[in-house]
Write a structure and sequence with these properties.
It is a single chain. The protein is of the alpha/beta class and 326 residues long. The protein has helices at residues 14-41, 83-87, 113-126, 139-153, 179-185, 189-194, 198-209, 217-228, 236-239, 242-248, 250-259, 277-286, 302-305, 307-325; strands spanning 43-48, 51-58, 65-69, 91-95, 131-136, 159-165, 264-269, 292-295. It has a single domain, classed as Alpha/Beta hydrolase fold, catalytic domain (Rossmann fold). It has an eight-stranded mixed beta sheet with strand order 1-2-4-3-5-6-7-8, sandwiched between helices. Helix 1 (14-41) crosses helix 8, helix 3 (113-126) crosses helix 4 (139-153) and helix 4 packs across helix 11 (250-259). The longest helix is centred in the first third of the chain and has 28 residues, at 14-41.
């Protein structure tokens, strides 16, 4: 009987190519797991309304405190690429808000921006922070806007000294939803959450990242794995309620930007279809003495896609503040 061999490029049998691909996938998966596990291993938990909240702190105690607030639907892990540079200068404090990342993701829970801001306040109080700065992204921008509003309203809080916002829906009128967000907000939202999978998440992430800086497989794998911990994909229709919240509280949250007592900085990936250049233009219209930077070709995740450019812009902002204060 004649033996037939199937060959691929370079005369390598197809079955060997398949084995190599499987081995590479296994290595990529191992690297991704080690990456997220390493992040988790340096964190701790505190309790909020009966839920376990993951948080992480690193840096010199005498350094300025920087609170990093993540976006939807990801987690504090998003900051890993800028963490080392920030750590050289600041005491870093971050968390996975309830419903995200390594924190609990209860199904019977009322998720709200106000509640997430309360969680941030609890962490600041627990760590006895007397003064702090904020670096926020996406959903975290709205939480930051609420914290600015509280800073304006009340004394007796830790002193907020500056806020830097990355791509996010600062203004409801400029927020352009992707299809998944609209479906999650619709009456079939619970079904959309139930049917969520890595392929659909990857498609949406690729769209908001843009063509110049697409997400690699490791990033997509990590984002999906962080999302599906405790079946977090099944509550996305609950978490997405922040979009109508932005409409309901527009006067308060946009007003916070317009009347903030602290320096503000906006860093925007310009090609982001959700909150890119069009949002930055609105920011310049509404926020007096605005300080903003657009990163060409970068999409919705500047801290992931272009960490060096993001850090350059952020550190220049902080250096200017330091020179004014000195």
């Amino acid at each position: 009987m004649e033996t037939i061999h199937r060959f691929g490029k370079g005369g390598v049998p197809h079955f060997l190519i398949s084995l190599r691909r499987l081995a590479k996938c296994a290595l990529d998966k191992r690297d991704m797991t080690q990456n997220t596990d390493a992040w988790k291993s340096k964190g701790k938990y505190f309790t909020h309304r009966g839920q376990n909240i993951f948080w992480r702190e690193e840096g010199r105690e005498d350094a300025p405190t920087l609170l990093l607030i993540h976006g939807f639907p990801t987690a504090s892990w998003d900051w890993q690429d800028v963490w080392p540079d920030l750590l050289k200068r600041y005491r870093l404090l971050t968390l996975d808000m309830v419903g995200f990342g390594f924190s609990d993701k209860p199904r019977d829970y009322t998720y709200s921006i106000m509640d997430q801001a309360d969680i941030c306040d609890e962490l600041l109080a627990a760590r006895r922070v007397s003064a702090f700065h904020i670096l926020a992204h996406d959903y975290g921008d709205t939480v930051a806007q609420e914290l600015i509003a509280r800073d304006i309203e009340r004394s007796g809080r830790p002193e907020l000294r500056s806020v830097c916002l990355l791509n996010g829906g600062l203004f409801p009128e400029t927020h352009r939803r992707v299809r998944l967000q609209s479906l999650l907000l619709s009456p079939i939202g619970p079904l959309v959450s139930l049917l969520a999978n890595k392929r659909k998440l990857s498609q949406n992430m690729s769209a908001v990242f843009g063509k110049a800086y697409p997400p690699d497989n490791e990033t997509l794998d990590s984002m999906w794995d962080m999302l599906r911990l405790q079946h977090g994909e099944r509550i996305m229709h609950k978490l997405i309620r922040y979009i109508p919240e932005r409409v309901e509280h527009r006067e308060r949250w946009v007003g916070a930007l317009q009347t903030a007592k602290v320096p503000l900085k906006l860093i925007v990936g310009s090609v982001d279809p959700i909150s890119g250049s069009h949002m930055a233009s609105r920011y310049r219209e509404l926020v007096p003495q605005s300080d903003d930077t657009e990163l060409p070709g970068v999409g919705h995740y500047p801290q992931v896609q272009a960490p060096e450019a993001t850090m350059k812009s952020y550190l220049e902002f902080r250096d200017r503040l330091a020179s004014v204060c000195s």
